[in-house]
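_Full entry_
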Amino acid sequence: MDVLIHLFVGLHIVGIAALLGGFLTQMKAMGKGTARFVPGMLHGALTMLVTGVALVGLHQAEGHTVNNIKIGIKLALLIVILGLVYVKRDEERVEKPLFGVVGALTTVNIFIAVLWT
């Protein structure tokens, strides 16, 4: 079971990398006002959602305690991120503040995961 958990943690990190990497590649375009949500950002957010749910289930199946408040906050942030990226995915340009919110929420989600013990 540990191998499966580690596999899903790795996939979760790949999802984070896709989402944050997509954001970072559009930073220059954001400065010009031409940033857009690339498909990798949507796929990364979806990967994070699926692997995150699987990780919670696997940890509970192992009998580990899960901090439901932490997971709930991370899930809420991810749903906002996913909603914004999904709704605006086909637009040629995304407003700077909206694009910045996605990057900020992604970063906050990472720090919650790492620092909240």
About this structure: Residues 2-25 form the longest helix (24 residues).
